[in-house]
Amino acid sequence: MPTVSDVSDEAPTLADLMPWSVPPLRLGRSWVMAPEAGTLTARWDRLLKADGEERERLFQPTRARTPHTAVAQLPGHPAPTTRLEREDGPCAAPVRVLHGPYDQQWLIPDQRLIDAARPELWRVADGSRQLYAVETARLPQLPGPPLVFSALLPDGHSPAGRPGRIRPLFRRPGGLDPNLAPGLLGHLALRLDTVVTAEDVLAWIAAQATGSPVRVPLTADPALWTEGVALGRRLLWLHTRGARFADPAEDRPAGHPRPPGGRRPYVRSALPDVPREAPSYDPEEQALVLGSGRVAPVPETAWEFHAGGTRVLETWFGRRIPAGAAEGLDAVRPTAWPRARTTELLELISVLALLAEVRPSLRALAARVAGGPLIGAAELRASRVLPVPETARRPASVLDHREEGPDGQFALL
To answer: From the CB of residue 275, how many other CB atoms can be counted at a distance below 10 Å?
Structure first.
């Protein structure tokens, strides 16, 4: 009987199953992202009040971007394209993005401010169908899942280790042109004797992806496939915080995922207005402690949840509690803990707790998949699903809209 490691060696790689990928965003300056949208508009206003050398200093120029750089708009986001040295208009409306694993932040979608914004990623974004698989790190010894998933556009940041790639599920907006190996859906449907959708494949990947490089064991057992897709859909519902795959009949209600009533975290003691220390955990009371503030119940599995090599909750707080005196535009930030952050914290704890609860089922499924019939890379090669053509590893053309180029010119793609 094959072991899980044997299956991993024979399983197709994620790079073959989802061939088109995009590198992580490279911001170049930290002030263009923040936990609150209002912080970003305040920073923009501060930048525009400065002139000449002061504006350039606040901007933090790099080789890729200075206030004199001329660049095009980001697809779908009508920021001005005049050079920043002459800019005097309002801030582009900040957008919600996934910053690293599990941290939702706000970003100014202005390509003049971002060293490498990856326009091809923004070009295929939409609010209803698109989903992203994001590799969390390239170092196999780091704890945590190899992938996270998002309905928000992700920046691909990895807290520790080398960041991986961002793989959209669809190559065009509106759920068109699945980013899957050509012929994969048809081959799986034939072998499993069932209809297989792109979302089904992503759900299976969510449930079974393992290792570094990431591999995905594929079962040839229809019953195991059905079970794995159901588990994966629950994972995707949790990762997207209820934005995708809601189904009350399958215990995935619409809205933000929450544990049952008696296990929902709440604030027992108010969090301090100006937290100055890292959080800690009280295992006896199952409480997250932040200064004089306490949140409970917090399962230890939620506190110990790692991704990208770091503890998720510690990383989340680290981006919101000043480690020292900030400089430049990074110093423009709330002077007290915003109430919305507490709500977001409770939501994150709930998601991490529910994700941890799925782990035993995932391990049991992986063992059964390893002991059953498999669709390996050799079979996919024999069926000419693999190797994928090079065109499948490149972005698709999106020709249904014009994009403004530098200094107001239009670019046809």
So the answer is: 19
- The alpha-carbon radius of gyration of the chain (Å, integer) is 23
- Helices 222-239 and 198-208, interaxial angle, to 10°? 90
d(CA 227, CA 268): 39
Q: Which two tokens stand for residue 295?
A: 């949140």
Tell me the average pLDDT across 20-27.
97
304 exposed, middle or buried (CB, 10 Å; 0-12, 13-18, 19+)?
A: middle
DSSP 284: T
401 vs 10, 329, 398, CA distance in Å?
43, 34, 8
364-400: b (≥16 Cβ within 10 Å) or e:
ebbeebbebebbbbebbeeeebbebeeebeebbebee
DSSP state of 409: -
Region 342-364: what's the mean pLDDT?
97
Pairing verdict, β 166-168 and 147-150 = unpaired
Closest alpha carbon to 219 in 11, 1, 17, 3: 11
- The tens digit of pLDDT for each residue in 234-270 reads 999 999 999 999 999 999 999 999 999 889 999 999 9
Q: Are 328 and 31 in contact (CB under 8 A)?
A: yes
> CA-to-CA distance for 143 and 120, rounded, in angstroms?
31
Whether the model pTM is above 0.90 = yes
Express each pLDDT in 34-66 by its tens digit: 999 999 999 999 999 999 999 999 999 999 999
What pLDDT score was predicted for residue 261? Answer: 85
Amino acid at 409: Q
Which tokens belong to 225? 């496939």
Average pLDDT, integer, range 309-322: 92
Give strand pairing partners of 103: 99
Looking up tokens 């301090």, which residue turns up? 272
User: Which one-letter DSSP state was computed for residue 50?
Assistant: -
* pLDDT in the model for residue 397: 82
Beta partners for 178? 170
Residue entry with tokens 């992202």: 33
Cβ-contact 296, 264 below 8 angstroms: no
Token reading at 247: 């189904």
How high is the pLDDT of residue 328? Answer: 96
Please state whether 121 falls in left (phi above 0), alpha (psi between -120 and 50) or beta: alpha
Q: How many Å apart are CA 119 and CA 229, to the nearest integer? A: 31
Check if the beta carbon of residue 139 is closer than 8 Å to that of residue 212. Answer: yes
